[in-house]
Write a structure and sequence with these properties.
With 108 residues, this protein is of the alpha+beta class. The chain has one domain. The protein has a two-stranded antiparallel ribbon with strand order 1-2. It contains 2 helices and 2 strands, in the order αββα. The radius of gyration is 18 Å and the shape is extended. Helix content is 30%, strand content 9%.
Length: 108
């Protein structure tokens, strides 16, 4: 059976649209890309987050692994320090990012 593609875009009822996300130019630089390659070569592609849910796979081709700053750059973290990078799967990265955003909002 052949599935029919959706012809109409879903209706977005939000009154205020979120800003368009733009990547920080630093993360597009050759310096960052070389650093990330070095980290992956040293540690492999697996989630290092100690809060990682054991039900989720820690490695494999289907898991997206993101080099994440432990102390975020907005909070004064070092850009290219290996000890400030933790490899996280997408769900662990989102959990940590949301926690940090909430912490910043609470102190603002």
């Amino acid at each position: 059976m052949k599935l029919v593609a959706r012809k109409v875009a879903p209706l977005d009822l939000r009154r205020v649209q979120p800003p368009v996300k733009e990547a920080d130019p630093f993360y597009l630089s050759d310096e960052w890309r070389a650093f990330v390659d070095y980290i992956f070569d040293q540690r492999g592609r697996r989630c290092e987050d100690p809060r990682h849910d054991d039900a989720l796979p820690r490695f494999g081709p289907a898991v997206r692994v993101i080099p994440d700053h432990i102390v975020e750059l907005k909070d004064g973290g070092a850009k290219l320090a290996p000890n400030n990078i933790m490899l996280r799967c997408w769900s662990c990265h989102q959990r940590k990012t949301n926690r940090e955003r909430a912490r910043r909002a609470a102190t603002a």
